[in-house]
Design a protein that fits this description.
It contains 10 helices and 13 strands. With 281 residues, it is of the alpha/beta class. The longest helix has 17 residues.
Length: 281
């Protein structure tokens, strides 16, 4: 669906330099701290900025060269819906009906209703969670093959976030050729949703892994100062000084469990990886 090769973009002190792919039939997560480069990558995919180097291909084409039919196969949910805040859901449905040949107005209104979005209520009267749900439903409304979602669950409580995630899951389950790129700084949202995750820090991809591999093979080891020199360093991805010695991140949990039974080894998730690989919060 999307191929990014050595994409470079410079903004004064910040420089983006990434390579990544969004395969067909998968949900790919791009996670990192605020300001890490997630939104810049999204803008490059959508053709909203010109790279300083490298290439971006969407459906095999430069984003700026996509034809109208190609663009109709992309659904986008950004922080701003692009609609006037004084429009209602009914108004938006009429606009989408004119924009897309395969827009199902009845289904769109039904989904909005099931999510608590009233047809006659203006956008500016919606809560943060309602606005987020509306943006996602608009992105899904024309059966796009590729969905690009930038922080769709930001600022929402856990109930609203869960509802958004369920909507995305259902959409993917309908057709196997669909793909999703979703950015977030909320790691728990992506653990149960994404097939694979890219971790971006300061404009660079510092880790790419299948989510199930992260959850099964990655671990944080607590190693005392006196022991650090006696263990194999070959599978340690990152380490941090602690009062007892070191916290070490590994992607070979089983190896260390079998060979170093005296070391404390704890299962980790994406949040732990962010902390260990970027020093973030």
């Amino acid at each position: 669906m999307v191929s990014i090769l050595n994409l470079k973009k410079n903004y004064g002190d910040f420089s983006l330099d990434i390579t990544m792919d969004i395969p067909e039939g998968r949900i790919t997560g791009l996670i990192g701290k605020n300001g890490a480069g997630k939104s810049t990558a999204i803008k490059a995919i959508l053709g909203l900025l010109s790279p300083d180097g490298g290439s971006v291909k969407v459906f095999g084409k430069n984003p700026k060269e996509l034809k109208t039919e190609d663009k109709k196969n992309i659904g986008v949910a950004l922080s701003d819906s692009g609609f006037s805040s004084y429009l209602t859901i009914s108004d938006i449905a009429k606009i989408l009906d004119k924009m897309y040949d395969d827009f199902d107005k009845k289904l769109f209104l039904e989904k909005c209703s099931s999510c608590g979005l009233k047809e006659d209520k203006q956008i500016h009267k919606f809560s943060t969670g309602m606005k987020a749900k509306m943006r996602v439903l608009v992105a899904l409304s024309h059966n796009a093959r590729l969905l690009i979602m930038d922080e769709p669950t930001a600022g929402m409580d856990i109930e609203a976030r869960t509802e958004i995630i369920d909507i995305i899951r259902e959409y993917m389950a309908e057709k196997e050729e669909r793909s999703v790129l979703i950015t977030s700084h909320i790691a728990t949202d992506l653990e149960g949703l994404c097939d694979d995750v890219y971790l971006i820090d300061n404009g660079k991809i510092v880790l790419h892994e299948d989510t199930d591999v992260i959850l099964s093979d990655y671990a944080v080891m607590k190693v005392e100062e006196k022991d650090i020199g006696h263990i194999d360093q070959g599978y340690i991805l990152s380490r941090k000084n602690e009062h007892f010695g070191y916290c070490c991140l590994t992607n070979q949990k089983q190896y260390y469990m079998e060979n170093y039974p005296g070391i404390v080894i704890e299962k980790c998730g994406i949040d732990d990886i962010i902390l260990m690989m970027t020093g973030g919060k």
